[in-house]
Amino acid sequence: MNKTISMPVDVATVKTPWQAWMMLPARTLLFAAFQAIFALVYFLGGSAHAWDDSSAWWPFSVTLTNVVCILLLIPLFRSEGKSYLNLFRIDREHIKNDLVAVLVVLVITIPVAMLPDILLANWLFGDIKVAMGLFIHHLPAWATLSGFILFPVTQGMAELVTYFLYIEPHLEDQLKVRWLALSIAAIALGIQHIAVPLLFNAPFIIWRALMFIPFAFLLGITLRWRPRLLIYLAIIHMLMDMGTAAMLFTV
User: Which residues contact 30 (CB under 8 A, 6 or more apart)?
Assistant: First the structure.
């Protein structure tokens, strides 16, 4: 009697055919939605420039978005038999090789993350200081300190997981084209920054949309090659965002 061999089923294909596509624009929309809430508070307070005033609070729009994403990712991964927290586990068996790989990525990261930012800002605004003046605004001391901590930590816990460990694998499974899936995820990660903060200023939108795309591809390729590097890349991500948040203290 012949036995029927049942092949393992890819849970992602069965249970999440559309969730990944829904998550693709989710962060961008949430950034804008939370900024709209801050703008409403300013409007009700009598501000004549409520939307512009709300843009100063982007560290908190990002933090709140990250919290929502984490709360969504936990059950999404659980439905596939995975643990969200285990994604950040250090693989002790390969720790030496992983640290060497991270060091190489870190060396590449510095120019890839910084040069597009500077070159685009100088091209679009004539001086990066003009772009930074639109991006960094005064906040109360308590908000500056809170943003310095909450924004980077939640970014490290949410952003890379969303795009490269959840969205990208599911798109690859559906599209059957590895580089197309990775490109969609990386471009979406870069473009989301148009809403951090969302200002209706064409040069600012172009700057924010394009400045992180090369870095996003670097991160996506690295995690596609070796997903277990997530914990290290998340820490690097946190430290870089702390550097950005530190600029709030200079205003």
Answer: 61, 64, 65, 68, 69
